[in-house]
Amino acid sequence: MATIRNLKIKTSTCNRIVKELHSYEKEVEREAAKTADMKNKGADPYDLKQQENVLGESRMMIPDCHKRLEAALADLKSTLAGLEETGEKEGPEIEEAKKTVADVEKQFPTEEA
């Protein structure tokens, strides 16, 4: 049953990375609004530059999350295919994994869909 355990771990990994990606997207929106507000209020140039650096770092995390999600999704799909080859095609873990794959592909269609 080690493969079912691996499947559960890989499913959780995909779910966690999706949550992380959404969190970074919200952070970028928040930081962009804060930066725009600082520009409008005529904030100190040094503070504005630091805020722009914070925004830049947040934006850099989104492509990184996309890459990790693609890798985790490919890993999940291969584990799922391996289980189906061994004859295990049903069970709550397998259904959860299939649902996760479908959800991720629906949310991020530019990936290996």
Q: What's the layout of helices and strands?
A:
Elements: H1 2-41, H2 45-85, H3 92-107
Brief sketch in words of this structure:
By secondary structure, the chain is an all-alpha fold. The protein has three helices and no strands. It has a single domain (4-86), classed as Up-down Bundle (Methane Monooxygenase Hydroxylase, Chain G, domain 1).
H/E topology pattern: HHH
Alpha-beta content class: mainly alpha
The helical percent reads over 70%
At the first level of CATH, what is the class?
Mainly Alpha
The shape is rod-shaped
The residue-averaged pLDDT reads 88
Q: Give me the number of helical elements.
A: 3
Number of strands: 0
Instruction: Count structural domains.
Output: 1
Radius of gyration, whole Å: 19 Å
Measured between the Cα atoms of the first and last residue, the distance is 28 Å
Largest sheet: none
Strand coverage percent: under 5%
List low-pLDDT spans. Answer: none
CATH topology name, in short, is Methane Monooxygenase Hydroxylase, Chain G, domain 1
CATH architectural grouping? Up-down Bundle
